[in-house]
Structures are given as structure tokens and as C-alpha cells.
Amino acid sequence: MKYLVTRNSLIALSFLIFSITELRAQFAEMELSRKSVYVQQSFRATITVYTTTWFTAPPEFGNLQIPNAFIVPFEKTVPGIFTVNNKKYSGIQFYYIVFPYKPGSFTVPAIDITVQSPPEGSSQARKITLHTAPQKFEVRDVPDRLKEQGDWFVAKDVTLHETWSPPLTDIKVGDVVKRTITIDAKGTLPQFIPDLSGQERVDWTSSYPQDAVLTDTRDEFDANGRSTQTVTYLFEKAGDFTFPPITVNYWNPFSAKMFTRTGEAENIHVADNPNLGILTTLKDSLAATQKPIAAKAEKKGPLLILGMRWYTFAGVVVAGIILLYVLLRFGIRLYRNLRERRRTYLASEAYRFHRFCRSPDDPNAFLRTLYTWWDSFTRKPSPSVLGSLRTDNAADLAAPINNFYAGIYGNESSKGNAEEVKKSLETYRTNKQKEFVDKSNPGITDEQEAWEVR
Q: For the chain, what is the radius of gyration of the CA atoms?
């Protein structure tokens, strides 16, 4: 009894080791560049897919969603050779850049990755779904000293650029000048770049700012952003004035310092203009370019839900629930029907013959699929295919099988004989189908059973 227990334990252990080795033939891992960041500070989530053989198609990555964070996927995959536990793997890397915008503890969820790769010892690819392990990370709130410094954002570097059209020369009352302020930030998203917060306004001229245009300027390695804001000025007073410089504050998390980018102050002389009749018209035209403020409704209308009266909305909801119930019942019935058909097909002789025809030339796999089909075809275990063929006067069809056996157990090469065996058995199967397809054939006795596809 002790010997049996030890033997069974060894068998179970060997099977477990084999299973783990097979599972590690293809696997995926996720690595976070940082697991503790500040609000708006980015980190990289790199996903690597490994195989011991090769990939026959690019991996298909699932959707990544993280609460309270912006996610920028970098779609370019990078292949390479990687070593894991002293074993070499072919691999493909893909990464996301994550920008959290709220403090707290969060988790990068598992991602499903569909790959096509042949297992070890085979050249036929199989489609499998791999899963990465979830990864936790912490988002810390910014230091209190930063909150007291007004508008700022997190970035690796910032540049500030301004243009004037026309230039600030020979300006007189009634002239219109357009000012374009461009802020380029590295290592962040354009959504995080703050607006100018009124810095572009001066009290000695009328200003008409437009909404900032945000542009994603990411490169091959990092996320970058650009904010472009345009302000139109109408000069209404004569004299000497100064446009104060624009300032942008940003915090670099790698150096843990606050930096300021400052533009240049612009001195300007506005000359008198005796022809001021057009000034009112210009002010009206520029004011029309600003966003209108929605007027308050004077009279409260009926209750609307998604633009519909409440009873219409209720009717639509009820009809939608009924339709959803009908579709659900139909879908369940259809699923069960298809599942039963598939189950019947997987147990049929036709499916087993199809597997035999697609079997590889490897002798063990070839013979296993051959006898699996043969037992189903003859409806009873029959260890001798050659004997059955000779009994049925199909000796000419038995020759390729005899040659195949000779190639396996003799000194001859079996390469190329497998396809001849498949063709001969396909001919034999077709002849038997024609022979037994009609149960009313007078040549069949009551004790005989007609052949049918199960």
C-alpha cells in the first residue's frame, strides 16, 4: 500500500509539473514603471507577451480602464528576445502611459490578450487568451506648498511662445491686433495645461479671448501636449502702455521642484486716430465672436426626460423592457440549440474523420486520431484497419497504410505516406457510405444495420 501511495504521488507530481510547463509556454506580464506617484504624474504600464516558439499574428490587447485616470495607449509593438528564469522567450511589448488625476489607492486591472502561437513541438498555431496579473499603485496628493502657488500643472518641461499679428508697431486707436500664446508641455496631456486665467487681459484695451485649442503632440516614447490660445485686442486709448508677461508654473516630479516659464513684456505706443467712427462697429463685431451666455427661461415648461414627456418616456422604457425580455429569451433558446448541435457534431463520426484528415504527420498523433475515427466509423472497437480493408476487398486501398506502418516500424522513412493514407481511407469511407446510405436496400438483411453519420 505504501508503494502504491508513493507511486501515485509521483505520477500526480509529474502531471502537475508538465501542466505548469505547458502553461508557461505562452504567458503575459505587466510591469509598472512606478507604483507611487503624485496627482497628474504619469507612469508607464508595460505589457510583455512571451512564447517559447513564435507568433503567427499580432497580439490583440483588451481594453484598459482605470478609475480617475487618463490612459494614453502607444499602439506600436516592439518584438524581442527575453530571458525569464534562465529560459529564452520570443516576446512582444506594448505599453500605456497612465495619468491619474485623483489621490488614492487604485489597481491596474488584468488585461486579456489574445495570441496565436504554436505550442512547443508543433508548427500549427493555436489561438489562446492570456491574462496579466492586476497591479496596485498609490496616487499621493500634491504637497500643500504647491496648492498656494495658484495655477500650475505637472510636466517634465514647458516652453512658452507668443506671436502678434500684425506686429506691435505703428499702432493707433481703433486698430485690432491678434495675440497667439502657445504652451508646449512634455510628459503630460494637453487637458492638464491650465488656461491663462485672465493674464491676457489689460484694463487699457478691450480683449476678446477665444477658447484654447488643445493638441495631442505625443511622440514615439512619451505623451506631450500643446495649448494654443488666441486673444484679439481692440485699442481704444492713446498713450504708452505695457503688456505684462505671461507666466506658466509647472512642477517637475523627477526633480521635485516648481519651475516658472515667463514670456516677454511688450511695450507699445498707441497713437491718436481722428477717424473713430468705426470704433463702435468694430466692438460690436468682436463681441459677436464671444460665446453667448444662455438666457434664463422665463416660463417653466413641462417635465421632459431626454426631450420627451414623462408618460412618453415611461412608455418607451416599458416597450424597451419587453423587447429586451423577448430578445433575451430568444437568445437563450438559440444558444442552447447551437450548443446542443455543436455537442452532437463533436461526438459524430464526421467530426472525428475531419480531425483525422487534419492530423499532423507525427506518427503518435496520426495513429491516435486514426483509431479514434475508426472505432466510431465501425461502431465497435476494431484494432486492425488493414484486416477490415482486406475483408471488404479493398486491398488496393490498404497498400498506403501498409507502407505507412512499414515506415514507422521498419527502416524506411514515413515522410509523405500520411497523406496517401488519408486519401485511401477517404475513398474507403465514401464507398461505405454509398453502400449503406439507403436502409431500404434489399441487399441488407434485418440483422444488419445501415451506416449513418452520427
A: 38
Amino acid at 309: R
Q: Report pLDDT digits (tens) over 293-335.
A: 333 334 455 567 777 777 788 888 999 999 999 999 999 999 9
Q: If we measure between CA atoms, which residue out of 67, 35, 39 comes closest to residue 155? A: 39
**pLDDT at position 450 over 90:** no
Euclidean distance between the first and final Cα of the chain, in Å?
A: 44
Q: How far apart are CA 82 and CA 80, in angstroms?
A: 6
Tell me how crowded residue 162 is: count the other CB atoms within 10 A of its CB: 15
Q: What share of the chain has pLDDT > 90, as a percent?
A: 18
CA–CA distance, 144 with 289 (Å, rounded to integer):
39
Q: What is the mean pLDDT of residues 281-294?
A: 56
In 101-253, the DSSP E strands lie at 104-108, 112-117, 126-131, 135-140, 153-154, 157-165, 171-172, 176-186, 205-209, 213-216, 224-235, 239-243, 247-252
Distance (Å, whole) CA 164 – CA 178:
6
DSSP code at position 39: T
Cβ proximity of 125 and 56 under 8 Å: yes
User: What region does 374 belong to: left with phi over 0, alpha with psi -120 to 50, or beta?
Assistant: alpha
What's the CA gap between 133 and 266, in Å, rounded? 56
Residue 97: closest CA among 75, 113, 74: 74
Q: Is the pTM of this model over 0.70?
A: no
- The residue type at 276: L
Per-residue pLDDT reduced to its tens digit, 200-227: 888 888 888 888 899 988 877 788 889 9
